[in-house]
């Protein structure tokens, strides 16, 4: 239930940069007028006329019609959102001369592969989707499900990868695999009926590996000779693919990992035969579509997963050998640079013990060199072996926040703590070993920002690299001399700047603003702070009605997610078209990151343990009370909307706090956590046999008799993440309690509605429901 998240060598950098002007592209974008400033201006204008009609409206608090907003439902549905027609998937060629990225040639979600030449400072299309044979072929079910779990919506060329040490590009398309050589020649490596899943190119660019039919293959790029590396197994087993839990909950989309020399591959064998099947039935194209999904639930059997290392020449697998046979999750595989050792992280089933093991690649013997425990939970973390010395970087929980330390590659012993403080490290875009420094993203200077910093491998005070406030996502070359910086702020749409690290701007990648943007009159929400329990500070975003008339009180719509891993209130660009439409029509729109949300460190998330639904709702009510002090807010008319974990929260609010929340739209909600997957649920609630009371306390079906307000349930029949059974059981409970509710079902959609018609219909019905019931 995640919210629902490429290197090169520079040899003649000075010459390349000399030929680049300091910034082709658009004129600088000005920050948007803040919501409150506009409200004051427009509210003053509205209250100055004294017309009888306006006075009547102020007394009645009437919600305005859809014509009062320039944002139509069609515009809300169209993707990408305004401002987000930007390059993505940045990468750099091995020689450091070319920056590559995915972008649309038409402003939609169909991507082509572009290149920005650092010598000429010009972009051009390298490969269009139409250039690849069979690109119009529908994707397979396997690929559809992989994209669903990775939250990928793009079509055309959805991904690509550079070889680490050669100017060779690997491009998957419609289940087949292509490579683009340095001279631009495209070679088709596969042409099969079954799809090649998760193709990966090795460091030298000489081989590409992939999974087909549940087995691992490799193909030689020069000869196109294919080698089958694994030899099948019983039905319900795969080799080279991660399982549902890894893909959906542990951010581990791949199930195999190339060794540095391209002579061997570490891979997973997954046996799901003991996992109970759940039917996922939907209707598409006039036909029934039934998928029997192996779906592990709390307390039941998980997949059996083991790891091995296969030699490409002998095709022999050496299986990893553990000191004991206890059940464990495996993840975050990383090879030592010399290929003699493999690092693997493990979690026990309770996810309270994290281990890092060093595996002898020749024998498969695993030795645990780092062990960390937590009374709340642990998750796989970032680990980065250094190439020039037997050391590695390790991100760990220090004082309730994520920080970096340097450890010995053989023993795991701590060498030096690199960061500390009441802030969090989020990722490591680049390690510059020659320069003795590591680059990391963090919120050191502002809790809602993401900035790029560097710190010496010898320790010391981190140095901030990026300057503009907001959220930065940086890609750096291997020498850490040039970076591509995608950044934005709440009041500033994204732009992509190429610059010398710590120096001048080289150029910009095109990020055209939508032609209708000014007409939409998008406003920036106000950041509000709320004093939570124990003095903890909570952050929220508030968008008031566009026009505030003295004496008029407006209904509230709370936008909620509330679950772990997601930080929804950040200083990054989001036009929030649904918010804007509601505020244009007279609603107060509010969002709060409660305790348990992501982005603030493990200590901020930990209160969720054993209390799912409790701390989140308490904080949401605290937030409501805080904004309720404003004279234009009517806490007697409160709606709440959410999807997935947010759907759970929306339904919970109506059932557990019926006097505070009066209207709710709950999309794809978990209703009984015993029905959701094991890895996610057991992390926060434990095993049902031991913590059944915590499951009961969070069970919406047991609260059905409390319903007083208006509840609207939405769910897709083909949702393979939060199964329709969740809504079905809540329906039965509401019927048993003789409670009226509303329901909408999408027969052919999954967890994330992908058909434009379905997205539009869901948005329009959501707004209609709020309008009709919060008058």
What topology emerges from the helices and strands here?
Elements: H1 13-18, H2 35-47, H3 52-60, H4 73-77, E1 88-92, E2 98-104, E3 110-117, E4 122-127, H5 141-149, E5 155-156, E6 161-162, E7 169-173, E8 176-180, E9 186-188, E10 197-201, E11 207-212, E12 215-220, E13 226-228, E14 237-239, H6 244-249, E15 256-258, E16 264-271, E17 277-284, E18 287-294, E19 304-311, E20 317-319, E21 328-335, E22 341-348, E23 353-360, E24 366-373, E25 383-385, E26 391-398, E27 401-408, E28 414-417, E29 425-432, E30 437-442, E31 451-456, E32 463-464, E33 471-476, E34 482-489, E35 492-500, E36 505-509, H7 517-520, E37 526-531, E38 537-543, E39 554-559, H8 577-584, E40 588-593, H9 602-605, H10 614-627, E41 633-643, H11 645-656, E42 663-667, H12 678-685, H13 688-697, E43 710-716, H14 725-736, E44 742-746, H15 756-773
Parallel strand pairs: 3-5, 39-40, 39-41, 41-42, 42-43, 43-44
Antiparallel strand pairs: 1-2, 2-3, 3-4, 6-7, 7-8, 8-9, 10-11, 11-12, 12-13, 14-16, 15-16, 16-19, 17-18, 19-20, 21-22, 22-23, 23-24, 25-26, 26-27, 27-28, 29-30, 30-31, 31-32, 33-34, 34-35, 35-36, 37-38, 38-40
């Amino acid at each position: 239930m995640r919210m629902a998240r490429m290197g090169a060598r520079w040899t003649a950098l000075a010459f390349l940069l000399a030929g680049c002007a300091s910034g082709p592209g658009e004129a600088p974008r000005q920050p948007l007028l803040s919501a409150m400033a506009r409200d004051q201006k427009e509210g003053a204008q509205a209250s100055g006329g004294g017309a009888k009609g306006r006075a009547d409206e102020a007394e009645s608090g009437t919600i305005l019609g859809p014509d009062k907003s320039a944002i139509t439902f069609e515009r809300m549905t169209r993707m990408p959102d305004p401002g987000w027609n930007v390059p993505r998937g940045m990468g750099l060629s091995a020689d450091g001369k070319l920056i590559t990225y995915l972008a649309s040639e038409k402003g939609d979600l169909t991507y082509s592969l572009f290149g920005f030449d650092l010598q000429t400072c010009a972009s051009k299309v390298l490969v269009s989707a139409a250039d690849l044979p069979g690109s119009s072929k529908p994707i397979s079910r396997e690929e559809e499900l992989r994209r669903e779990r990775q939250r990928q919506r793009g079509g055309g060329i959805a991904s690509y990868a550079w070889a680490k040490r050669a100017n060779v590009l690997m491009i998957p398309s419609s289940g087949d695999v292509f490579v683009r050589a340095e001279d631009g020649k495209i070679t088709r490596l596969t042409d099969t009926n079954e799809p090649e899943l998760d193709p990966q190119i090795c460091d030298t660019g000489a081989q590409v590996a992939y999974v087909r039919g549940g087995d691992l293959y490799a193909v030689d790029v020069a000869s196109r000779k294919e080698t089958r590396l694994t030899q099948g197994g019983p039905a319900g087993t795969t080799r080279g693919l991660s399982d549902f839990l890894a893909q959906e909950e542990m951010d581990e989309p791949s199930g195999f990992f190339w060794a540095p020399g391209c002579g061997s591959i570490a891979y997973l064998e997954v046996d799901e035969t003991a996992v109970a099947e759940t039917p996922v039935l939907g209707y598409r194209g006039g036909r029934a579509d039934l998928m029997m999904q192996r779906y592990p639930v709390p307390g039941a059997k998980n997949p059996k997963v083991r790891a091995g290392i296969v030699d490409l020449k002998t095709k022999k697998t050496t299986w990893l050998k553990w000191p004991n046979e206890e059940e464990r999750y495996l993840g975050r595989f990383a090879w030592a640079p010399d290929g003699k050792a493999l690092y693997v992280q493990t979690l026990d089933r309770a996810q309270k013990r994290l281990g890092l093991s060093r595996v002898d690649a020749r024998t498969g013997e695993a030795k645990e060199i780092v062990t960390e425990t937590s009374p709340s939970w642990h998750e796989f973390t970032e680990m980065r072996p250094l190439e020039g010395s037997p050391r590695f970087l390790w991100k760990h929980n220090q004082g309730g926040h994520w920080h970096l330390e340097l450890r010995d590659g053989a023993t795991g012993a701590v060498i030096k703590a690199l960061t500390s403080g009441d802030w969090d490290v989020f990722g490591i875009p680049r390690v510059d070993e020659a320069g003795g420094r590591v680059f990391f993203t963090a919120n050191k200077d502002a809790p809602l920002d993401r900035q790029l910093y560097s710190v010496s491998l010898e320790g010391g005070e981190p140095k901030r690299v990026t300057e503009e406030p907001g959220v930065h996502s940086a890609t750096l070359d291997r020498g850490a001399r040039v970076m591509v910086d995608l950044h934005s702020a709440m009041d500033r749409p994204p732009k992509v700047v190429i610059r010398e690290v710590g120096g001048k701007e080289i150029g910009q990648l095109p990020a055209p603003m939508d032609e209708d943007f000014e007409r939409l009159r998008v406003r920036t929400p106000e950041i509000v702070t709320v004093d939570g329990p124990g003095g903890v500070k909570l952050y929220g975003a508030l968008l008031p009605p566009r026009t505030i008339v003295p004496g008029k009180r407006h209904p509230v719509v709370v936008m909620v997610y509330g679950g772990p891993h997601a930080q929804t209130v950040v200083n990054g660009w989001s036009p929030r078209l649904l918010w804007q439409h509601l505020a244009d029509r007279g609603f107060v729109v509010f969002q709060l990151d409660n305790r348990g949300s992501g982005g603030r460190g493990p200590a901020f998330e930990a209160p969720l343990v054993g209390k799912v639904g409790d701390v989140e709702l308490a904080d949401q009510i605290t937030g409501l009370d805080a904004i309720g002090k404003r004279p234009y807010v009517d806490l007697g008319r409160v709606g709440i909307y959410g999807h997935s974990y947010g759907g759970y929260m929306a339904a919970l609010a109506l059932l557990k706090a019926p006097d505070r929340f009066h209207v709710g739209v709950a999309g794809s909600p978990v209703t009984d956590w015993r029905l959701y997957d094991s890895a996610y649920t057991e992390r926060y609630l434990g095993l049902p046999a031991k913590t059944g009371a915590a499951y009961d306390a969070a069970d919406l079906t047991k609260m059905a008799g409390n319903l007083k307000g208006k509840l609207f349930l939405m769910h897709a029949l083909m949702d393979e993440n939060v199964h329709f059974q969740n809504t079905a059981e809540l329906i039965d409970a509401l019927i048993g309690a003789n409670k009226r509710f509303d329901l909408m079902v999408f027969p052919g959609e999954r967890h994330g509605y992908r058909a434009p018609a379905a997205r539009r219909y869901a948005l329009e019905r959501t707004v209609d429901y709020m309008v009709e019931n919060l008058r």
